[in-house]
Amino acid sequence: MHVSTLTTTLSLATLLLAAPAPPSQPLFKRAPGSLIAMAPKSKTCAGAQFAAECKTAAQAAPFINASFKTYGITSAGEAAALVSLMAFESGDFKYNTNHFPGRPGQGTRNMQMPPFNLEYAKSIPALKDGLAKAGTDVKKVLELLTSKGEYDFGSAAWFMKNKCKKEVRDGLKKGTTDAWKMYITECIGTTVTEERQAGWEKAAKAMGVPGH
Q: Do residues 57 and 35 lie in contact, with contact meaning Cβ atoms separated by under 8 Å?
């Protein structure tokens, strides 16, 4: 997609309002928040180390929005958590495969581990034939998921819907930082760091999450 001006980019990358939207309504069209504000390096792919994997904010926004609709993400707090996770794990959407340290089969925009990638891929009817050919090859499974933006950017929301406890999601709907910390430690299964928290605060503020 070619974007001629920053104004157009910001328009395409607008995301989320604090008030929940019906599942059928695109969240990002309801608010004056910018995906570029949440993931500053996504303004451009110029000079990207892994150019073939890079997506700008303008390119990423429609896929992220579609994932919210597909997996029922209707609150600004949940969406802020998802965007901040993807931005952190992919260097602001610069890559979708684990290059550091290079774990085979780990990838998509939330750097999902191979067992979850396989489960996610099995949930997508269009990938049935491709999965039959991929067999147990984790790299080929990942290639299927990164072949289309809707799959690539959809994994984080799929994971939240299918792997996060209700109390974690309920907490995120309230938009509290304590709830976000539970999301990182209890759902994602990693540690809270200053860099991760800064990304969350940035996303929460851009999306209009109350208290941020």
A: yes
Residue with tokens 């950017």: 153
- What pLDDT digit, counting tens, does each position of 55-110 carry? 999 999 999 999 999 999 999 999 999 999 999 999 999 999 999 999 999 999 99
Note the pTM of the prediction, 2 decimals: 0.86
Token pair for 166: 């209700």
> Measured in whole angstroms, how far is the alpha carbon of residue 3 from the centre of its chain?
22
Whole-angstrom Cα Rg for the chain: 16
Is residue 146 within 8 A of residue 96, CB to CB? The reply is yes
DSSP-derived 3-state class of residue 97? strand
Contact by Cβ (8 Å): 59, 9:
no
Contact 200, 80 (CB under 8 A): yes
Q: State how far the alpha carbon of 78 is from the alpha carbons of 59, 88, 97, 185, 204, in Å.
A: 21, 16, 24, 15, 9
